[in-house]
Design goal:
The protein folds into two domains: 220 residues, no CATH class; 71 residues, no CATH class. It is built from eight helices and eight strands; from the N terminus they run ββααββααααααββββ. It has a four-stranded mixed β-sheet, with helices on one face. The chain has a two-stranded antiparallel sheet with strand order 5-6. Strands 7-8 form a two-stranded antiparallel sheet. Helix 1 crosses helix 2, helix 3 packs antiparallel against helix 5 and helix 3 packs antiparallel against helix 6. The chain is elongated.
């Protein structure tokens, strides 16, 4: 749709299908369907501001964030903060804080409408303003639920990161997330809600992926390290083992035993990815400053 501060905003095609359904289902709320359209556009703006909060905060702490996609279940800001608990916490918390900042603004708008007797003179305007207020409250309350991968669950994970470390905090957050998913599945059956069912499925997939990632991080953390190398970004020595996969032939190999050359197809890689922080650097930048590189 547009780019702001180097961040591209995309709108998924399914958003329009759900928009038509939601607008039609709430047609009785106003005297004209035009007001329903305005209400749904307000939802779009609030979600967009929420996601830009994530993205801009991530860039503020030195992370990568260049894409936002809005779709029927909300929005997704593709953020990649530095692998530090504080940076991750700020990147995630900034989204709900946007909703918090909107509370007094929308609350003042509701009070102004009441003072100016708008409910009697312009009932559609008053209904729109108060509905937007409650939409923002609902989005805030939902997002801060401590259920991974919702913002509340990721905030919990970031807080646990300080005492438990990166892998254990993710493991605990995803396990708690499975409990939340079970609750959403029960809610979907109780309310006969397809929307809650789709949301539960989305959360289940993310919890499963997060748990697998946590297990992989724990496995890597236990491996012996190559002290003669160090990541230029996080200063961590890389683990030993066939943990890098060739993008050309698909074979796994240890890039530090072959000087970033695949032993199966001889493909050479200009940059080597750190398995701890995710940053990529040229192979010769990985030499620990106090050590000389071994002959390979």
């Amino acid at each position: 749709m547009f780019r702001f501060a180097g961040i591209d905003l995309f709108l998924h095609w399914s958003w329009f299908l759900v928009a038509v359904f939601e607008i039609q289902s709430r047609a009785h709320s106003y005297s004209s369907i035009t007001w329903n359209v305005l209400e749904y556009l307000a939802l779009f703006v609030i979600v967009m501001l929420h996601e830009f909060g994530h993205a801009l905060a991530c860039r503020q702490v030195g992370g990568r964030a260049n894409q936002i996609i809005l779709w029927p279940l909300g929005g997704v800001a593709y953020v990649d903060p530095p692998p530090r608990p504080g940076a991750t916490l700020w990147s995630i918390a900034a989204g709900p804080l946007v909703n918090v900042a909107l509370l007094p603004i929308l609350g003042a708008a509701v009070l102004l409408c009441r003072v100016q007797a708008v409910p009697e003179t312009l009932p559609n305007v008053y209904t729109l303003v108060i509905n937007i207020f409650w939409i923002n409250v609902g989005l805030l309350a939902f997002n801060i639920l401590p259920i991974y991968p919702l913002d509340g669950g990721q905030i919990l994970r970031s807080l646990l990161w300080f005492p438990l470390g990166r892998a254990r905090s993710l493991q605990v957050a995803t396990i708690l997330g499975f409990i939340g998913v079970a609750g959403f599945i029960g809610l979907a059956f109780w309310m006969q809600s397809l929307w809650f069912g789709a949301l539960a499925a989305f959360m289940l997939l993310n919890c499963w992926g997060g748990l697998k990632h946590a297990q992989e991080l724990l496995r890597i953390a236990k491996l012996p390290r190559r002290e003669e190398f160090a990541c230029p970004s996080c200063k961590t020595s890389p683990p030993r083992g066939e943990l890098w996969r060739c993008g050309n032939c698909g074979q796994a190999f240890d890039t530090f035993t072959t000087s970033a050359v695949c032993p199966y197809c001889s493909a050479r890689f200009a940059r080597t990815r750190c398995l701890d922080c995710g940053e990529q650097h040229a192979f010769n930048e990985w030499m620990a400053p106090t050590l000389t590189a071994p002959s390979l």
